[in-house]
Amino acid sequence: MDENYDVIVLGTGLTECILSGVLSVDGKKVLHIDRQDFYGGESASLNLSQLYEKFKPLTQKPLFLKGRDRDWCVDLIPKFLMSDGELTNILVHTDVTRYIEFKQISGSYVYRSGSVHKVPTTASDAWSSKLLGLMEKNRMRQFLQFIAGYKEDDIKTHYGYDLDKNTMSDIYDYYGLQNGTRDFIGHAMALWPTDDYLNEPARPTYERILLYCQSVAKYGKSPYLYPLYGLGELPQGFARLSAIYGGTYMLDTPVEEVLYNEDGKFAGVKTKEGIAKAPIVIADPTYFPDKVKKTGKRVIRAMCILDHPVPNTNDLDSLQIIIPQNQVRRKHDIYIAVLSDVHCVVPKGYYLAIVSTIIETDQPHVELEPAFKLLGPRLDTLMGIADLYEPINDGTTDNVFISKSYDASSHFESATDDVKDIYFRVTGKPLVLKKRKTVEEEEQEGL
């Protein structure tokens, strides 16, 4: 294999595959290696046998669970795509959507005072919501009108506030919003995992709420999209994009040695196929354990197999439920992603509810009890705990650029921020996606 490349990518997580795809489109010669024999890394989707081998290795998969192995596609990292979010824009712009079919998530719910409620995202939603009293409905309506009507160059729409100086608490106070209302705005719409945002400048929260509302407006029902056959389809889609533009993929290929030059900069890798040389490497944290650190946070994820829809959600085939931390006396939110056979991730008649949160105690499974109570009876539950890692350095000294672990958030916006950050550090310029050629243009050019 002894050959020279512009970039070597280690690991086939979504972050690595996106970067492999966009760098290949940029004209870089990319070699992509993974020690595993399947795509996705930590963001893979597992079949039923793989799922039990990973989380219950001493237990055979239950005979009462019907369907073939391949009828089950269970995500290791449960996340949805915002329909107007950054990852969706990347997918559309690079036309990776030609390989993947998406389906909308049917509902977005928030936990409040022991029960779940649909998240109101428009003035009319606010007016009909059971979350709000009569006076609060009017205040919420005015707040949403402010979000929708705010224009940077029209000071009349600012109502005397500066989003870069005033805090989000200042904005809430202006509209007189109650604590419960602030809870679901901040956690179920802005999707903040904690309350730290309250005392920080309001602009990021404004942008998050606007993204949520625009994503709902795009298709209705909820702001979320999900790929058929699981999130593991996303890395494969970008891998295919990379391959079309000349990228080389090697699965089931462990790295035997990482090579550096006399200046301590990355020079290549040695595998069973030989030596591959490149001046730059992009990798997930598992490939460079000496160059990453634990963030001090751990995530617990529980894959819950059900034979019924989640109670009190109108029997929806899919939804997200967010349990704001204040509602259950925690410091971090609890997220529940619910899917069914319409997404081709379980056989007909089954539902998959994946619960995740940041661990706060020495009894993490107990921390998920508020979510378990909402789900009703479970056929089986498989739990996994993962430390979160981040690179110690930015990679510019040794040309080793490492991605961050996937957090407990319900969507991919933080992951795409990591993509853009790594791309800038690797290339020295912001990520500006090149519009991919049409199928006809690619066929004419022999791509």
TrEMBL record:
Pfam families per the UniProt record, alphabetical: GDI (PF00996)
Record-level GO BP terms: protein transport; small GTPase-mediated signal transduction; vesicle-mediated transport
Alphabetized GO MF terms: Rab GDP-dissociation inhibitor activity
One Gene Ontology term, aspect cellular component: cytoplasm
PANTHER family to which the protein is assigned, alphabetical: RAB GDP DISSOCIATION INHIBITOR, RAB GDP-DISSOCIATION INHIBITOR
Lineage of origin: Eukaryota, Fungi, Dikarya, Ascomycota, Saccharomycotina
Designated name of the protein: Rab GDP dissociation inhibitor
Organism: Scheffersomyces spartinae
Family: Belongs to the Rab GDI family.
